[in-house]
# Entry
Amino acid sequence: MPDIRYVCLSDMHFGADNSLMTCMKAGSAGGDPTQASPVVISLVGCLRELISKNESPKKPKLILNGDILELALTTDNRAAMAFERFLELIMLPGQEPLFDSTIFYLPGNHDHHLWETAREAQYSHYISGIKKGVYLDNPWHATSSFIEERAPLPAVFLNTLAKRVRGTDDVTFATAYPNFGLLRDDKQRCVLFHHGHFTESIYLMMSTLNTMIFPDRKVPSQVWDIETENFAWIDFFWSTMGRSGEVGEDVELVYDKMLDPGAFDKVLQNLAGSLVERFKMLFWNRWIGRRALFWALEKTAGQYAAQERLQPAGPLSDEGQQGLKLYVEGPLREQIKIERKDTVPPEVTFVFGHTHKPFEQVIESDRYRNPLEVYNCGGWVVDAPQPTPVTGGAAILVDENLDVASLRLYNEATNPNDYAVKVQAATSGSNPFCQRIASLMDPSRGIWKEFSSEAAKAVSICRKNLRYHIRRRV
# Structure
């Protein structure tokens, strides 16, 4: 019988005030990171229940696929404490951890700074082995994909948190960025994980601007070149701004208002008016100046508010589908070819998060031998003041054959009774692994029903708190 060998979670945003992973209370301006969220407790209970049914005593490996810690819109200490509550549940002190001792961590955009610290540590280690006077290579901005059996690139901050929880250093976080791959022994199937930010054009902004200025230049096609050109932009806006004291708090406030079109229009109108008053000598007519600046801001900053995860019409917009296809057919495939000596396994599955909208689909591509199976992990935050049924969270499960099942844990619903866990596959054909997972759970009973109830309560609380934040000043 197929066992769970890997569990992938993403977009948990520990520490964020709109995250189900942060312990929140109705009417509270902020969560309590010293307490475990009821959703986290119930989620770990569900995973423990499934894993206990494995026939092999071998523990599955945990893959954390980006935006696990919220480093953009809260402070380090709050994110760390909320994450420690999760670690306490999966690695109880004095007991065997739920997962293998090596946890793979792929930084996303909201925790991108964890990649920067790992990258700098990696480069420092390289420099320490080079004799003085020898020319140093440039730092590299990506890891190899297929690193499972190699010496891990340690994540110092996360390892410190794990040691605080366990009291020992027997659990290691291994950093992979931006792609992490699993390869079956026969080399005929692989599963590739990526947080998902490089499927969206806004995270390629520096490359886009450079190409606009110098249209004859070669557009980067390798993941390390894409990261080299855009890492500072990603790190600045999505992984450091929210930690900048009172300015960071106001950044979070503006971010919340982006989730409501009317409130964000008011922010842009205020900004346009302030700029006209500040530089009034440049505007012969202040009313026209305000209107012109508002239009310009709407066309620039407004594009951020139109990012993929805020599009409620479907799992992926047309632009999102295009970005996904461009990434898997371009940078992802190129990295596989380089690492596999110009060969790509016939069967490829791609797993990403970032959009907070879980889904499963098949992509036809003439760049691959067979159609790609695609899974999205969804997310664990409330992004809109009204229910959006496409938003939700999933755990992506992988067995020893690299078959994949999506444990769709929740999707937002208007009626709390409509919350229910289900198992999904990208293809309609036979998937023994999906069938086995489905046979091990009953969504209407026990811990599964309890989880759905906790998720519905948490979504309601986060939505009320989000409305409160949106109504705040500006």
